[in-house]
Design a protein that fits this description.
The structure holds two protein chains of two kinds. Chain A has eleven helices and two strands; from the N terminus they run ααααββααααααα. By secondary structure, chain A is mainly alpha-helical. Chain A has one domain. In chain A, a hairpin with a 2-residue loop joins strand 1 (133-136) and strand 2 (139-142). Chain B is mainly α. Chain B has two domains: 36-296, ABC transporter involved in vitamin B12 uptake, BtuC (Orthogonal Bundle); 297-327. Chain B is built from 15 helices and two strands. Chain B has helices at 3-9, 11-28, 35-61, 68-82, 88-110, 115-123, 125-140, 153-176, 178-188, 190-195, 200-226, 231-234, 238-250, 256-294, 298-326, and strands spanning 146-147, 228-229. A two-stranded antiparallel ribbon of chain B has the order 1-2. In chain B, helix 5 (88-110) runs antiparallel to helix 11 and helix 13 crosses helix 14 (256-294). The chains are: A mainly alpha, B mainly alpha.
Amino acid sequence: MSEIPRLIISGILTGSVYGLLAMGLSLQYGVARVLNIAHGEFVMLGALLVFTLRTILGINPLVAVAIIGPLLFAGGFLLQTTLFRGLKARAPAPAAFEGNALLAAFGLMYVLKYIGLLRWGSWPRTSYYLHYMVQFAGLSIRANQLLAFAIAVAIGIGVYLFLSRSRLGRAIRATAEDPATAGLMGINTNIILAFCFGLGALLACIGGALTSMYSTISSGMGFSSTVIALIVVTLGGLGSVTGSFIAGIIIGIVTTMVTSLWQPVLVIPVYYAILMVLLMVRPAGILGKK
Amino acid sequence: MDITGFISTHRKLLLVGFLILILIFLVSFPLYTRVYHLRLLTVILMYVILSVSWAMFSGPTGYMSLGTAAFVGTGMYTMALLQYKLPFPVVIAVGGLASFALALLVGLVTLRLKGIYFAIFTFGFFMFMSRTIMYVEGQIQGSRGQHIIPLPNETIFYTMLVVTVVTVLAIYFIRRSRLGLALLSIGGNEDAAAHMGINTTQVKVISFAISAFFMGAAGVVMAPNLIYINAGIAYGPSYSFMPILMCIFGGMGQLYGPVIGAVVFGYLDRTLSLQWATYFMLGFGIIMITVILFLPNGLVGLIQKLQQTRLIAKLLNRGKEKQNAIT
C-alpha cells in the first residue's frame, strides 16, 4: 500500500506537463477559436527538435528549448496570420469558421505528423536528462521529473500572472471575451490572436522538451498528446487556463494509477470514461463558466 | 433543334440515363477486368459509402465528426465475431446496427452540447474502441487479432455495390426529407431551428446514428477483403481522415460532391500509397488545407460558380442581341 503515495506524487509530476500542454490548447481555443488538434504534433516537433540538437550538438535540453521554442512560436504566429486568418475572412459565419478551422487543423496535423515521420522515422528515441533518483520528502523521485514539474509550475504561474496582470494579458482576455469590442478599444486583435496561437505552440514545444527528458519520444507521439490535451482542456473547462493546469494534474494521477495498477492499454478507455461522465454531468468542466 | 436546348429541357431524364449507364458499367465490371482493378473499385466504393454518409451528417450541420474509423472498425469486428454464426447479408445488417447503437451512445453524450465537444469526443474515440478491444482480446483469447475467411472478390464487390447503391439512394431521400431539412436548418441557425419546433438534439442524434449505420455496414463488407484484422487495422485512423478529405475536396453542397472526392482520392490512395505512403499522406494534408482555404465549397462549388458565370454571360449576350435587333 506504500505504493499509492509514490504513484500520486509521480502522477502529479507527469500531470504538470499535461497541464502545460492543455494551457496552450486552451489559449488557442479560448482566444483564437481554433480547436487546434495539431497541438500534439507541435509537442512532437518540440521534443524531436530538442532531441536532435542534443544528439548532434550536445546542447543541454533546457538551452535547446530557448532555441527551438521561438522557432515554433514563430511557426504558430505565422499559421494564425496566414491560414486561420484567411479562413476567418472567408467564413460566412463564426460557427462555420470554427468548423473549417477544425478541419484545417486536422489537415495540418497530418502534414506535421508526416514531416516528423519523414525526418525522424517511426522508431522511438530516448535522450534522458538527469536520469537518477533523488530523495524528496521521504520518497525517491527521478530528478528529471522533479525538474520538469518545477519548470511546468513556474511557467504555469508565469502565464497566469501574464494573463491576469500585464497589459498584453488584459488585451488577450478582452479579445477572448469580445473581439469586436476589443478591436474598437484600439486592440490589434489580429496580432493578439497570432500571439496566442504562437504562445500555444511555444507551450507545446516546452511540454515536448520536458517530456523528452524522462520518457521515450517518437514521431507518432503527437496523436496521444493531442488526445490527452483535449481531455484535460475539457475537464478543466474550455478556455480556462487555471482549470487546465488543475485538470492536467488530475489526469496525470489517473494515468500513473491506471498504468501501474491496472493495464497501460486501458489508459485511453479510462480517459474516455472520465470524459463521458464529465460531459453528462458538468460539460463546462471543473473551472469553466456556467 | 439544338443540343443545348435538348439538354436543358430533358435534364432529369438524361441524368437518370447517365446513372443507369454508370450502374451497368459497374455491374459488368468484373467481366472484363483483372482482380487488382476489382479490388481497387471495391475500396473506392467503400470510400463512397463512408464519405457520402459522413457528408450527410457533418455537411449540413457543421458538427464535425472525426470518428468515422470507430464505426468502420466496429463493422469489421462484427464480421470477425459473427462470420460463422450468421449469413453474410445478416451480418451486414447487424454490423450496421452495432455502429448505429454506438453512435447513438456517442450522440446522446455529446450532441446536446456545442459542436466543439462533439469534435473533441469523436477525435480520439476510435482509439478508445481499439484499446478496449485490445484489452478484451487479451483477456479472452490471450492473443491479438482475428482471422476472417476470405470471400470471392466478385462476391465482395457486388455486395459492396449493393450497399453503396442502397446508401446513396437512402441518403438522397433523407436529404430531401423533413430530417434533411431539419439538419440544414440546424446548420443555419440552431437556436432558430429549436424555436421553429425542431427537437434539435433528437434530429442530430438520429441522423448521426443513421450515418454510422452505413459506415458500419461498409466495414462489414470490407472485412473479408483484409483476411486478417486486429484492433489497429480495423480502427485505422485513415478511415476517419480520408472521408473528410474526400468530402472537402468534392464539396458537400450536392450529393455527387463526396462521390467525386471518394473516386479521386480512393484511386490515388490505393495506387500511389503503396510506394509513397508517407509523401502521399503529407500531400493529402496539404491538399486538405489548400482546398479548405481556397475552395470552401469544393469542386461542386467551383462547378456551380462556373455555371453561374456562364449563365450571366449568356444573359448578357442575349441582351446584346436584342439591342442589335432593335438598332
